């Protein structure tokens, strides 16, 4: 067994829907049904790509349209990440074009958080022609780091540094007329330390565990089709628990630009990010989304970096429950939106006051959880329980001021990324923590 106990590669049986599932279920791997014409490229550890330049040494992850591999760049003697895109998605060159464009842009604060596209090439296989993108590898997402932790918290200085980096990255994207479109903890990755390149694969396996192949088995007992691999792999765990991540090793990159767009030439009316993070204008405004939509999700993500739990919470995050959470924390919606929210009276009276009736979805006695309540429940008390420093009153005030300026219902009234970059919190806490991290990183080389 490799990695932590939450990343078991044990195969388990499940109920099979007739006519749909062809293969025995394997947990924590890509959808095996997608190994078909137009789908994933079948690969295995040890395979070579791009005329022998890259040798696959482990699996980093997967998505609905790609698998991501850790590979040795045999020309440069370093590790890289190779994203192998499904054939039916490979004609869309938007992500590659965006990374190329950003890589050629002038160096400005935040540029360092955007992955550099080392190169792209094509791989041809039984399922079609696959675009492959090569970038520097990342060891884990912030989501994975928190999930692996008992407390689900980052060290205070680490949280400050990560937040500062993220704000700088979003400010850089917006200065390049790019809306990310899908900011959340799973799309913010922690880079490998540079020292990883000094480890040969054998030492990498000694430290993190060897890849474990899982046999692909058809339920009907027939042999596998040509485009289906004999084995698949659970992604390796190269990360650290959030509370074990130390200052100087928390350098981040922003990933997954599949939902990114330039609002000046692309009309985007709906948000594809996680329901609990979606900005209210995506539901009520019926106007194209723009930079302000990123600012809303950035604020929600920053809160999660600082705290144990999200600012807005809903067990079943329907549109109405998400709106109810937003109103409970921030206040009544703009009048036109308020009047168009037909289920508002299930939670509030016409003045926006919470109906004081028991509701198991919102804690004891259905009482309103204010910003202050949530700050204590999600940030201060969990930090105290974990033996970490709590947020000082001075920082708390600056932090709240910054986030509230980002969580304004009307998009036109929200702070811009540049304003956040020059906020009191960034000047007093975020930027100093980032500078301390860089000094620490320099000393450890």
Summary tags:
single chain, Phosphorylase Kinase, domain 1, 12 helices, alpha+beta, Transferase(Phosphotransferase), domain 1, 3-stranded antiparallel β-sheet, 31% helix, 6-stranded antiparallel β-sheet, 445 residues, disordered N terminus, 11 strands
Report on the structure:
The chain is built from 12 helices and 11 strands. The protein is of the alpha+beta class.
Instruction: Flag low-confidence runs.
Output: 3-18
Number of helices: 12
Name of the CATH homologous superfamily of the largest domain: Transferase(Phosphotransferase) domain 1
**SS elements, strand count:** 11
How do the helices and strands line up, and which of them pair or pack?
Layout: E1 48-49, E2 54-63, E3 66-73, E4 78-85, H1 94-103, E5 119-125, E6 128-135, E7 138-141, H2 142-147, H3 156-175, E8 188-191, H4 201-208, E9 213-215, E10 231-233, E11 252-254, H5 281-284, H6 291-306, H7 319-330, H8 335-340, H9 371-385, H10 393-406, H11 417-421, H12 424-444
Antiparallel strand pairs: 1-2, 2-3, 3-4, 4-6, 5-6, 7-8, 8-11, 9-10
Helix pairs in contact: 3-6, 3-12, 10-12
């Amino acid at each position: 067994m490799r990695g932590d106990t939450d990343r078991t590669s044990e195969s388990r049986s499940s109920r099979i829907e007739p006519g749909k599932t062809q293969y025995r279920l394997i947990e924590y791997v890509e959808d095996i049904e997608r190994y078909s014409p137009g789908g994933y490229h079948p690969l295995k550890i040890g395979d070579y790509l791009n005329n022998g330049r890259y040798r696959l040494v482990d699996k980093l992850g997967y998505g609905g349209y790609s698998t991501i591999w850790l590979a040795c760049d045999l020309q440069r003697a370093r590790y890289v990440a190779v994203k192998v895109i499904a054939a039916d998605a490979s004609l869309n060159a938007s992500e590659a074009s965006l990374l190329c464009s950003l890589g050629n842009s002038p160096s400005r604060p935040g540029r360092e958080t955007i992955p550099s596209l080392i190169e792209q090439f094509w791989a041809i296989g039984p399922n079609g022609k696959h675009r492959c993108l090569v970038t520097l590898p990342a060891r884990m997402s912030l989501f994975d780091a928190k999930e692996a932790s008992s407390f689900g918290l980052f060290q205070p200085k680490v949280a400050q540094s990560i937040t500062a980096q993220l704000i700088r990255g979003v400010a850089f994207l917006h200065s390049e007329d790019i809306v990310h479109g899908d900011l959340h903890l799973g799309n913010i990755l922690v880079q490998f330390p540079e020292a990883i390149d000094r480890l040969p694969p054998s030492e990498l396996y000694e430290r993190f565990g060897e890849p474990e192949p899982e046999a692909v088995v058809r339920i009907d007992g027939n042999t596998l089709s040509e485009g289906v691999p004999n084995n698949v792999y659970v992604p390796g765990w190269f990360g650290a628990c959030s509370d074990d991540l130390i200052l100087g090793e928390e350098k981040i990159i922003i990933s997954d630009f599949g939902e990114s767009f330039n609002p000046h030439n692309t009309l985007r009316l709906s948000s594809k990010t996680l329901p609990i993070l979606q900005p209210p204008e995506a539901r009520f405004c019926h106007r194209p989304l723009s930079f302000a939509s990123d600012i809303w999700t950035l604020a929600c993500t920053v809160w999660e970096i600082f705290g144990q739990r999200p600012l807005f919470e809903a067990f079943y995050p329907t549109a109405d429950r998400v709106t109810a959470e937003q109103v409970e924390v921030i206040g009544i919606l703009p009048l036109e939106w308020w009047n168009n929210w037909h289920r508002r009276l299930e939670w509030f009276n016409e003045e926006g006051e919470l109906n004081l009736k028991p509701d198991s979805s919102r804690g004891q006695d259905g009482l309103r959880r204010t910003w202050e309540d949530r700050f204590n429940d999600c940030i201060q008390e969990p930090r105290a329980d974990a033996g970490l420093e709590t947020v000082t009153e001075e920082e708390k005030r600056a932090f709240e001021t910054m986030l509230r300026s980002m969580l304004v219902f009307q998009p036109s009234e929200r702070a811009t990324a540049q304003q956040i970059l020059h906020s009191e919190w960034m000047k007093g806490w975020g930027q100093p923590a980032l500078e301390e991290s860089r000094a620490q990183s320099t000393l450890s080389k």
